[in-house]
Design goal:
By secondary structure, this protein is mainly α. The chain folds into 2 domains: 34 residues, no CATH class; 71 residues, no CATH class. Helix 3 packs antiparallel against helix 4 and helix 5 runs antiparallel to helix 6. The chain is elongated and about 55 Å long.
Length: 105
């Protein structure tokens, strides 16, 4: 039984996980160009805009904002919130989005 493909796959998975701890850009490892880091102020403005449009049940606009944010590197402090908001918007979960963004100023 040849274990090389399995071991290579396992090795590559560690490369991605460990690069995040070392502060390296995940996209650089994948061979993609590095994304520009979005400022804290801009992401807060985007979150506020998402909150406003989701309050009006405009999920198309929320999707467009999420898509725009995906073109940037998200600061670590906002990454978990962004990931959860992105999932809630995809699931058309207005109450989930509003709850997640309720604490963002």
């Amino acid at each position: 039984m040849q274990r090389t493909p399995f071991l290579l796959e396992k090795y590559r998975s560690y490369l991605t996980k460990l690069s995040l701890l070392a502060g390296e850009k995940h996209s650089v490892i994948k061979g993609e160009p590095a994304k520009k880091m979005i400022s804290e102020q801009k992401i807060k403005e985007a979150f506020s805009a998402i909150k406003d449009v989701v309050s009006a049940f405009d999920f198309d606009t929320a999707d467009a904002i999420i898509e725009e944010l995906d073109s940037f590197e998200i600061p670590y402090d906002f990454l978990e919130t962004f990931t959860n908001v992105k999932k809630a918007v995809r699931d058309v979960d207005a109450s989930g989005v509003l709850e997640l963004l309720g604490e963002i100023n």
